[in-house]
What we know:
The protein is an alpha+beta fold. It has 2 domains: about 5-85, Phosphorylase Kinase, domain 1 (2-Layer Sandwich); about 85-225, 2-Layer Sandwich (D-amino Acid Aminotransferase, Chain A, domain 1), CATH 3.30.470.20. The chain contains 6 helices and 13 strands. It has helices at about 45-65, 100-105, 135-140, 145-170, 215-220, 225-245, and strands spanning about 5-10, 15, 25-30, 30-35, 40-45, 70-75, 80-85, 85-95, 115-125, 135, 175-185, 190-195, 200-205. The strands form 3 sheets. Strands 8, 9, 10, 11, 12 and 13 form a 6-stranded antiparallel β-sheet that branches. Strands 1-2-3-7-6 form a 5-stranded antiparallel β-sheet, with helices on one face. The chain has a two-stranded antiparallel ribbon with strand order 4-5. Strand 11 and strand 12 (about 190-195) form a beta hairpin. Helix 1 (about 45-65) packs parallel to helix 6 (about 225-245). The longest helix is centred in the middle third of the chain and has 23 residues, at about 145-170.
Amino acid sequence: MTYGALLAEGKTKQIFAHPTNPDWAVIVSKDAITAGDGARRHVIPGKGALSGATTANIFTLLVRNHVPTHFVERLSDTDMVVQRCQMIPIEVVTRRHATGSYLRRHPEFTEGHRFEPLVVEFFFKDDANHDPLMRVDELIQANITDKSTIEHITIIAKNVFEILERTWHAQQVTLVDMKIEFGRTNAGELVVADVIDNDSWRLWPQGNKDQMLDKQVYRNMREVTDEGLAQIKGLYATVKEYTDTWV
């Protein structure tokens, strides 16, 4: 398929106009990996195919479970067709266990503390200010979104987490936390949008942080070497193989 104009490009993906349907777009996953708001960045040949396939597997599972998403179809391991969306400029982070930045903000909790019910946090997408955490009332007062939309997003985000948590639990992997994004289609439907891949969550096999499967391994590297990047690619391949069993 020959795609239309490049609509947008992020650190790890490109978005093209669909060649025949103005309500659709094509997301193409790139081989880039980044951390620290893009301060650290590398290219891992083949990562785009692993991330793209993982994303398609995840969205297929969510659609099967009646979650509203922008996913239309998978074209290849790197390319998928989605509904065009007006993105809501919020990253929604859902947490089952305390770790990372949450612990730094809340030192009263211990590593791995389990949250019941889930903790849901909202980060305003603003690269210049490092995507600040915002309270619901702050988001509403700043006209970033409205109360009804936040309530709807929260319900969907918890449902997404619980679906994926159960699926990973069946494979003896703990889903620690994850981030997703939302948009509204041209028809006005609120949907889970963008991508969900191995950059989007923390995964601890058997609940063991020392065996993590996600991008945090890349973030934690003091020095990035070719051997280290090969290790990262292996983790992404493992996660892709796990999610292949979901579809």
